[in-house]
Amino acid sequence: QVQLVESGGGLVQPGGSLRLSCAASGFTFSRYDIAWYRQAPEKEREFVARIFTIGGITSYKDSVKGRFTISRDNAKNTVYLQMNSLEPEDTAVYYCNVEYGGGNYWGQGTQVTVSS
């Protein structure tokens, strides 16, 4: 079955960096677009970034452009989210997501807290 396992979250000071990982299994990873979403307390889940299968094309939420970079390693079935210049507003649980076989799959999430 499809599994997505996020890791790499933690507590970081404003201006700091983190790299999140999402390890995928249960489907042919290289054939599917993968996305990162986040959900802050008392807010709706929101799109952060997506990486497409063709040409490594990426898209980002406007507020993270220039600070976050999404990438993928198809040999390791893993997607990464490099987050630089973190701001308190980036505090959230971060989830990776894949749409596969008519279903919409999520990992368990990893907590990112940006605070001094």
Any key phrases for this structure?
116 residues; mainly beta; 11 strands; 53% strand
Give the overall silhouette. Answer: globular
User: Which structural class matches the secondary elements?
Assistant: mainly beta
In DSSP terms (H or I, runs of 4 or more residues), the helix count works out at 0
Fraction of residues in β-strands: over 45%
**Share of helix among residues?**
under 10%
How many beta-strand segments? 11
Overall pLDDT level: 96
C-alpha Rg (nearest Å)? 13 Å
Order of helices and strands: EEEEEEEEEEE
From the N-terminal CA to the C-terminal CA, the straight-line distance is 40 Å
Low-confidence stretches: none
- Please outline the major beta sheet: 7 strands, mixed
Please, could you describe this protein's structure?
It is a single chain. With 116 residues, the chain is mainly β. It is built from no helices and eleven strands. Strands 2, 4, 5, 6, 9, 10 and 11 form a seven-stranded mixed sheet that branches. The protein has a four-stranded antiparallel sheet with strand order 1-3-8-7, with no helix packed on it. The radius of gyration is 13 Å and the shape is globular. It starts with a strand and ends with a strand. The model has no long low-confidence stretch (mean pLDDT 96).
